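Throughout this review, each integer encodes one residue's backbone shape. One record appears below.

===
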Amino acid sequence: MDRRALEKLWRDLFDRIPSPALRREILIPILAYRIQENAFGRLRESTARKLREFAEEPAGSPRLGQDAMRPRTGTRYVREYDGKLHEVTVLESGYEYQGKAYRSLTEITKVITGAKWSGPAFFGLKRKARKAIA
């Protein structure tokens, strides 16, 4: 669509003219979102609230989403590998394996396997990608 057609679509969807400062590359995703919103409904309030929290977060601060996903201190991960049972405990900042503290599960996985593997994948914490239903 050319600029004129995009502006007409904007007027139809928002009941006002778009700012002349908005470039075409910006208009298109905003219009696409509005069309989806009209077809499928708005975000749930809880999702919109979480997005506002992310937007208000100061640069460089720990991500709220990462904190929410972090397991509770004391959680234990157990994995059998090479005939041995390996147990990891979640600490307040990091993990404990065989009496030693580590910053990440990946560090522990390297100690266990001798190779660099994804720690979360090794301990079965990564979600499997959902297969599309045809």
User: Anything to note?
Assistant: Helices lie at 3-14, 24-40, 45-56, 64-69, 105-113, 119-122. Strands lie at 76-81, 84-91, 94-97, 100-102.
